[in-house]
Design a protein that fits this description.
Helix content of chain B: 55-70%
Strand order of the largest sheet of chain B: 1-2
Largest sheet of chain C: 6 strands, mixed
Shape of chain B: globular
Number of strands of chain B: 4
Number of helices of chain C: 17
CATH topology of the largest domain in chain B: ABC transporter involved in vitamin B12 uptake, BtuC
Oligomer: heterotrimer
Shape of chain C: elongated
Structural class of chain B: mainly alpha
CATH architecture of the largest domain in chain B: Orthogonal Bundle
Number of strands of chain C: 20
Radius of gyration of chain C: 25 Å
Number of helices of chain B: 17
Number of domains of chain B: 2
Chains: A mainly alpha, B mainly alpha, C alpha/beta
CATH class of the largest domain in chain B: Mainly Alpha
Distance between the termini of chain C: 32 Å
Largest interface: B-C, 44 and 59 residues
């Protein structure tokens, strides 16, 4: 064969996997810290399950957003879409024609509509995703307050029974103050979460589409040269994200039972933070779908810790924001250490200034 | 003839805002012919026109700042509402704590408070400016930080309440200046915010005339690397535009809080960033930066104010208005998007070749011809 | 003698107003490494794009293994066995090696990792590439990444492999590794088209060389029978007679005392080796060399257009700090950039604004010229340089290339520099203006200005420069001065340099 140097290098961990492991470790640390600081509440299993029960909607929309972020884009309309869906479904359910399946279809429909519209404008007309999804956010908020201003409590019996449905785990439980044993319960929303995580993770790892998403996120020019239909790939990531936003809206109302103007507000920044903590680089191309729920849980645990420490919930958005920046810096440090490059803030394409021309002409 | 042509050319930039304005006027006149009536109420002008001028005061000032930011850094500042809230919180805090009673000391504290809020504006502007010019973050995302957290910061400055700003001078700043001399009341017929805005516009005009701001900003916006090779430091210019924006937010916040009489950190100038972006775009300025027209933005701002009022007059739900604006912004973005532009160019080129028949260029032989960018888009030259 | 895999005859391709290729022939044999060479605007890139189906030719025929073909898309070309590896690695750094080799191919909606990795291992081994299939691409060195890109092309059963500037970012060892791979492919019968600016490499690896110039075929030669100096002469070619009207040579009076500008060990972030440079009052010097030799980078380093990483400069004997273009300007240096469109004109600004720009910046932020003053300046230079423009207010982008160039020139002349650097001032403009500019350069030198004149047309430099600094492969290899310099002298220095 030739005098080639065929010594193969040891395979090192891929960036995605490394960040995922870091996310997992941090989560365990945070939870451990919580266990130590507030054993009263955190020791109970129900607390752990409640993290899922009460925040299923957030985790679901985080999943869809993760895919969009891996492709190198962003969607900040998801919170508002979620809220819109809750109100729309509530209205439908309370009207004479309402039935649960109809509401579900409506939720999916609204989500897909936003996803398709935004996806088209971003992928095919090449408009910056930030602006489009910001406009989407305002559009959804506007529609939300237009269709109904006051909260709607859904009283439709079929839905209420759905809402109250829970899976009971008989052997895990806690003693309440009266001394009765209350078994742990899992709400149906959690089932949706688990199903989606499995489904989407499989999609990202084993389908051609999933790998294309990673490719486009890594280097969209190269992806095009390699024969991938970049525009179509980007388009579908936004559709999926809109879909999960719709599903999250349905799960939200399934959990709280009411449509409310404030639903879903500021969820998008929590979702972004969750993804970043979970190991998705803002740069795109790096990320693990399994990391998103972990990141979300970490964020929620930290929020709980802060709340238990007596800080106002007003500040949760600020906390999320701060965590986000902390993690971006952390990721950048890790990445640059890996590649022995100069420290560069890992910023995604939609964050950077559109560079017209670089100084330093090559002859 | 040349001069006339040049002047007409300048005016053509204003075509967009003026035509939208005309359209709105027509719609309003249809609704009620008394649109232009101006009456005197309590000694001050009252009517649709003065109301528009009054209502748009903050928007005009913010649009001017937004124009510069957009022109130099090709992006928009979406945190202006929050920034204005922060600066006005500083102002209110100072004035309330100064506790002046006497009329002239009130004036003094207000002036000092105003200057203080301008400094706060510079700080806010510097924060954004560094993110954009040094860290090369897109303006819309850099200013997202203040958009999300700015109002909470203002709330904290307020001491977690909505302080009331009620002193005679503030009242006058918010409405009309009046004074009594020898038992006769004199009222300045034009509302104070309108006057303040006019002064601001004059200052801006002077600055543009007496400095190279326009040349530098436009150069940086059009071609930053060429600007660099001519000795301009694009980073500094971009930073400067954000500082100016910060001052604009301070002035706008000052006017807004004096109008309202209390500092409501949640609702003060809420969503004004959308109006400002629209005003700049309607003013004929490219949202992608480069050449700018302050006049266009000013007209655009008044146009947006008129649009708001017209929509309300047509009984469109206030909540729907937001949706309308979002759609409108999307349409503007679509038109401005690169794909659509290239498509439009192609269509235009085809039309030109059909009309011209033979494409012979007037200026010189083959070496002078322009090769279309789409053909030689390969990065390296041969 | 093996048969031709690819034969192109009489290829013509034009764009609106520009003839990119005129009657070009090109043939590639099976199992040969064929270098395609030519200067800026020669047509190499266009020819490749015609081969790979990016462009459709206007005329000529292309036969692949004897069959007449007509590609309508890059996909078709790829399917017919033509693989291209570009200068910038067109792979995805975040995917694994195996993924990069196989993604975008095949119609299977599911990914079979095990199979893919096995196939990848086979391929890597057969080509001797030191990488594992499960490795992330970004963890491989650039050279290895390049080879993986080539492996992908090979696996797609390419019969023809086009390598576009593959060695620009590689060091010597990596280049050797790449060459090993190329020889392996050659042995398998793949025909390789090798595009590069590095003359030494061409002589090391290729069997035949085809030279293009100004869209025309100059010739096809066996590498072994073409001496370097002849190659260089064919690439540079001869310019038009019109320019012979310029005065043949002017003995420049060099003030032999303190030089106007002096640089010692100047280096910049663009990879130019630290160099020394001096220029005296009234002197015109040139940087000669082929494209890629580093001429522009050196000029830019003087002006601090790129980040200066080392060295010191002196202006009239005094040590000065030039860290940014404004410093250079204030010291009396001017720079007309090579890329007129990207670095020179501010497209939507008026002719007037473009002319006064540099002087205005030097004057300062708070001292704008009055409209009247600006108009006067603009009018003065429009007249002096005979700039054709409808008015001073016209946007510069509507002017022809030649007139745009004159505006940029006016901009710098307005600053009355002591030392003016002109990087390709005559590129892409009509002959008449070319002559004007060269005459102007001589006049300015006569009046005491120092100039650096860089041009791909060596004739122009010979006509105007009293001293030529010769560059090759990003370093200075020699210096020529004297009365009767000829092209031959220059080419000689280039050919000999670096050995």
């Amino acid at each position: 064969m030739g005098s080639m140097n065929t010594i193969k290098p040891k395979t090192r961990l891929s960036n995605s996997n490394l960040l995922f492991i870091i996310a997992g470790v941090i989560f365990v640390l945070m939870y451990g810290f919580a266990l130590i600081s507030f054993p009263g509440s955190f020791m109970q299993f129900q607390t752990f399950f409640d993290l899922f029960n009460l925040n299923a909607a957030l985790i679901i929309m985080t999943l869809g957003l993760c895919i969009v972020m891996i492709v190198g884009g962003i969607d900040i309309s998801i919170g508002a879409v979620c809220g819109l869906v809750t109100m729309a479904c509530a209205m439908l359910l309370e009207s004479k024609m309402g039935n649960v399946w109809g509401a579900l279809l409506l939720a999916l429909g609204i989500g897909i509509a936003f996803g398709v519209l935004q996806g088209y404008l971003i992928a095919y007309l090449e408009i910056q995703p930030f602006i489009i999804t910001l406009a989407g956010l305002f559009l959804a908020q506007g529609l939300l307050t237009t269709i109904h201003k006051d909260p709607i409590n859904v009283t439709m019996p079929a839905f209420v029974s759905l809402r109250d449905f829970k899976i009971v785990i008989p052997w895990l439980g806690t003693q309440n103050r009266l001394g009765n044993f209350i078994p742990c319960e899992i709400k149906p929303g959690v089932i949706v979460v688990v199903a989606l995580v499995v489904l989407l993770a499989a999609l990202m790892k084993w389908s051609r589409f999933g790998r294309n998403v990673y490719a486009v996120g890594g280097n969209s020019q190269s992806a095009m040269m390699l024969g991938i239909n970049v525009k179509r790939t980007i388009f579908f990531t936004y559709v999926i994200c809109g879909l999960t936003a719709g599903i999250s809206g349905f799960v939200f109302i399934m959990t709280t039972g009411a449509g409310n103007i404030g639903n879903g507000a500021l969820f998008e920044i929590k979702a972004i933070a969750s993804n970043v903590i979970g190991g998705t680089l803002l740069n795109g191309g790096v990320g693990n779908l399994l990391g998103s729920p972990i990141g979300a849980l970490t964020l929620l645990v930290i929020n709980e810790l802060i709340r238990a420490a007596g800080v106002q919930s007003n500040f949760q958005a600020i906390v999320s924001g701060l965590l986000l920046y902390l993690f971006i810096v952390l990721q950048s440090v890790v990445m640059s250490l890996r590649d022995r490059r100069k420290f560069k803030l890992a910023l995604p394409p939609w964050l950077r200034l559109p560079g017209k021309k670089k100084a330093g002409n090559q002859e | 003839m040349q001069r006339l042509k040049a002047q007409l050319y300048q005016l053509s930039y204003l075509f967009l805002p003026l035509s939208v304005l005309v359209l709105l006027i027509v719609i309003n006149l249809i609704k009620g012919a008394d649109y232009f009536s101006i009456t005197m109420v309590k000694g001050a002008f009252y009517g649709e026109i003065p109301n528009i001028l009054f209502g748009a005061s903050e928007l005009v000032i913010l649009s001017i700042g937004m124009t510069l930011v957009t022109a130099a850094s090709q992006g928009q500042d979406i945190g202006i509402g929050a920034s204005a809230t922060i600066t006005s919180a500083v102002f209110v805090l100072f004035v309330l704590n100064a506790g002046a009673v006497n009329l002239w000391t009130i004036v003094l504290t207000i002036v000092a408070g105003f200057l203080l809020s301008c400094m706060a504006g510079l700080v806010v502007g510097a924060f954004n400016g560094i993110l954009v010019s040094v860290f090369k973050v897109q303006p819309m995302v850099a200013t997202l930080i203040l958009f999300m957290g700015g109002r909470s910061i203002a709330f904290m400055i307020d001491g977690k309440v909505s302080p009331i700003l009620a002193n005679p001078i503030s009242n006058q700043i918010g409405t009309v200046i009046n004074f009594t001399i020898n038992n006769s009341k004199y009222v300045v017929p034009i509302q104070t915010p309108i006057i303040l805005t006019a002064i601001f516009i004059v200052i801006v005009a002077v600055v543009l005339k007496k400095t190279n701001l326009r040349l530098y900003v436009e150069s940086v916006g059009i071609n930053p690397s060429a600007a660099r090779l001519n000795g301009i430091n694009p980073k500094k210019i971009i930073f400067l535009t954000f500082l100016i924006m910060g001052v604009c937010t301070a002035v706008a916040g000052f006017i807004a809080v004096n109008k309202a009489g209390r500092h409501d950190s949640v609702n003060l100038l809420k969503f004004i960033m959308m109006d400002a972006i629209l005003a700049v775009a309607i003013g004929g300025n490219a949202l992608s930066g480069g050449k700018f027209s302050i006049t266009g933005s000013i007209i655009g701002a008044y146009t947006i104010e008129m649009l708001n009022r017209t929509l309300l007059r047509l009984e469109v739900e206030p909540a729907m208005i937001k949706a309308f604006k979002a759609v409108f912004i999307i349409i503007l973005m679509v038109i401005a998007s690169p794909v659509v532009r290239v498509f439009a160019k192609k269509v235009l080129y085809k039309a030109q070749t059909i009309v011209a028949g033979v494409t012979v260029r007037k200026t010189g032989g083959p070496n002078n011809a322009v090769v279309s960018d789409t053909d030689t888009s390969g990065k390296k030259e041969e | 003698m093996s048969e031709n895999i690819l034969k192109m005859e009489g290829i013509c391709k034009s764009f609106p107003g520009v003839k990119a290729l005129g009657n070009v022939d090109f043939a590639l044999r099976k199992g040969e490494i064929h270098s395609l060479m030519g200067e800026n605007g020669a047509g190499k890139s266009t020819l490749i794009k015609v081969i790979t189906g990016v462009y459709e030719k206007d005329a000529g025929r292309i036969t692949l293994n004897g069959k007449l073909i007509h590609f309508k898309s890059p996909q078709e070309a790829q399917n017919m066995g033509i693989g291209t590896v570009y200068q910038e690695i067109t792979l995805c750094p975040n995917l694994t090696v195996a993924e990069n080799m196989f993604i975008g191919r095949g119609r299977n909606p599911f990914v079979q990792w095990k199979q893919m990795n096995e196939k990848a291992t086979q391929l890597l081994n057969s080509l001797g590439i030191p990488a594992r299939p499960t490795q992330e691409l970004s963890s491989c060195s650039l050279a290895v990444q390049q080879m993986i890109a080539i492996a992908r092309a090979v696996d797609m059963d390419c019969k023809i492999l086009i390598l576009d500037e593959p060695t620009s970012s590689l060091d010597e060892d990596e280049v050797n590794t790449l060459f090993e791979l190329m020889r392996e492919l050659k042995a398998r019968g793949v025909g390789i088209i090798f595009i590069t600016h590095f003359i030494e490499q061409v002589y090391k690896i290729s069997d035949r060389i085809t030279v293009l110039r100004n869209g025309e075929l100059i010739g096809e030669y066996e590498t072994s029978s073409l001496p370097q100096i002849e190659l260089i002469s064919k690439m540079m070619g001869k310019a038009l007679d019109d320019e012979a009207k310029i005065k043949k040579h002017v003995p420049q009076k060099s003030d032999s005392s303190v030089p106007v500008f002096e640089a010692a060990a100047l280096s910049s972030a663009t990879g130019v080796r630290p160099f020394d440079f001096t220029i005296h009052k009234g002197e015109v010097n040139g940087f000669a060399g082929l494209i890629g030799s580093g001429r522009s980078e050196s000029a830019r380093a003087i002006f601090a257009a790129d980040k200066v990483t080392g060295g010191e400069v002196k202006m009239k004997g005094k040590r000065v700090k030039i860290k940014a273009p404004l410093n250079a300007m204030k010291q009396g240096i001017g720079y007309l950039p090579e890329d007129r469109k990207g670095d020179g004109i501010i497209a939507e600004l008026s002719v007037r604004d473009n002319i006064i720009l540099a002087l205005q910046v030097m004057k300062g932020f708070f001292k704008p010229f009055s409209r009247k003053q600006a108009e006067e300046f603009a009018d003065e230079y429009i007249k002096k340089l005979k700039i054709k423009t409808p008015s001073t207010n016209t946007q510069i982008k509507s002017l022809s290339g030649g007139n745009q160039q004159k505006v940029i020139l006016a901009r710098w002349l307005l600053t009355h520099p002591e030392y003016l650097i002109l990087d390709e001032p005559t590129r892409g403009i009509d002959v008449g203006t070319k002559v004007e500019i060269q005459k102007l350069v001589l006049k300015l030198a006569e009046d005491g200005m120092s100039l650096t004149f860089i041009s791909s047309e060596i004739d122009e430099m010979l006509r105007t420069c009293s001293r030529l600094i010769v560059m090759k492969d990003r370093e200075i290899v020699g210096e020529l001065s004297g009365m009767n310099l000829t092209e031959h002298d220059v080419m000689h220095v280039i050919a000999q340099g670096g050995e």
